[in-house]
Automatic annotation (TrEMBL):
It is found in: Secreted, Cell wall. The keyword Membrane does not apply. It catalyses: (1,4-alpha-D-galacturonosyl)n+m + H2O = (1,4-alpha-D-galacturonosyl)n + (1,4-alpha-D-galacturonosyl)m. This is endo-polygalacturonase. The active site is at 282. Belongs to the glycosyl hydrolase 28 family. Keywords: Cell wall, Cell wall biogenesis/degradation, Glycosidase, Hydrolase, Secreted, Signal. GO terms for biological process: anther dehiscence; carbohydrate metabolic process; cell wall modification involved in abscission; fruit dehiscence.
Amino acid sequence: MNPPSFLLSFFLVLTYFTSCLGVYHEKNSHTVSYHSLPASSSLLYRKSRTWNRHRQQARGYASSVNVDEFGAKADGSDDSEAFKKAWNKGCSSSGDVVIIVPKNRMYTLKPVTFSGPCKSRIIFKIHGTIKASAKTADYARDRSHWIVFQNVENFRVKGGGTINGSGKIWWKNSCKINESLPCIGAPTAVTFDECKNLIVSNLKFLNAQQMHLSFEKCLNVRALNLLVIAPEKSPNTDGIHVTGTQNIRIQNCVIRTGDDCISIVSGSKNVQATDITCGPGHGISIGSLGAGKQEARVSNVFVNRATLSGTTNGVRIKTWQGGSGFAKNIVFQNIALNNVSNPIIINQNYCDQKEPCKEQRSAVQVSNVMYRNIVGTSASEVAVKFDCSKTFPCRGVVLQNINLNSQESGERATASCDNVNFAKRGSVSPQCS
Ligand SMILES: *[C@@H]1O[C@H](CO)[C@@H](O)[C@H](O)[C@H]1NC(C)=O
Ligand SMILES: *[C@@H]1O[C@H](CO)[C@@H](O)[C@H](O)[C@H]1NC(C)=O
Ligand SMILES: *[C@@H]1O[C@H](CO)[C@@H](O)[C@H](O)[C@H]1NC(C)=O
């Protein structure tokens, strides 16, 4: 493989960028080091400075609560009760509080929900490791969640620690791995449900049972400096999932999993993803939308500066036939792709089920989608694919400065464009015929 030199320099610039801003770097596939944010950069810091000021002004002074004080043992036995007690203590305290999960210790948790509203601001500092119980029977009551933070405001989760979903047992029992088994799903490792003013930063998520991190019905979120890792063959292990969430910025994240790097689904608005590294996995996706004739609404998505390597898609919009609603005002820009199977794709005939999907007239309307400065190599012949609905063609698609070549030297990359209304600016290759 010999990428054009300008592509190489683009990668270098990206790498430089991400390293300045402080992102996880993988030295090799086994060790991972972390460079923290320099004190002067990023909005996070500005936000946290404001926060500290608030804290100093607050009457109840910042106190801390340590899970060990509540009986957490970190010896492989269940620490859930200790964590719940620590949470309840923190959540009911009248001054700002830091809940501490000490470093160099590995705690085991069964499914647990940490609920608000809390009396004051909480910082949940995970320095050590939190590991999921690997007994599926522990999830009998609710198979779809492991750790849930619910209805918490002015909340930060950080600390440099690790959250390990112990996913192996779930992957083995997935219908995507063993087709003779029923499709019954598995827990999302960490869910933030109806949280407001939330910052999740400087953490490592490993081997989730299914999705790693899900933001659901949240408002004002930053997800920064996260490392998310699971094997390429682990089923449905999306990195960061965004649903029903408004005003979210995902920044400086490295995501290498078996499913979507970032997935953005219905009810999400004002979503920014900046300085993202993906692969392996399925790429950055809006959707799927409109499954089971649902109405979907996604708008104002801005993906800027991403590098995807060896993913099955690059930037993707996927909708099922029969849905309604919209996916609109979407920008994908400054994206480098390295051996990606479907670098640019809109699929309005998405069908992720065993039976074939019947043709339907209704569809989620896709409009105003800008692809700008997208370069790299395609692992498949069709580098640009717009497979839009006959009855609801894709509207207002703009391609600007696109240069996608085949990964195989001597092969030509092509574009396939059905039912799409598009414009082209600058140099675009390959082009719809
Ligand atoms: C994650 O958890 C699994 C199962 O509980 C364990 O086997 C594995 O060693 C853990 N990995 C790390 C890096 O802690
Ligand atoms: C798939 O599941 C079936 C039914 O539980 C089981 O008998 C079989 O051993 C599994 N196959 C593999 C490869 O794990
Ligand atoms: C490119 O991707 C294809 C398909 O995923 C894979 O088979 C091939 O080994 C990759 N090539 C390189 C050089 O990584």
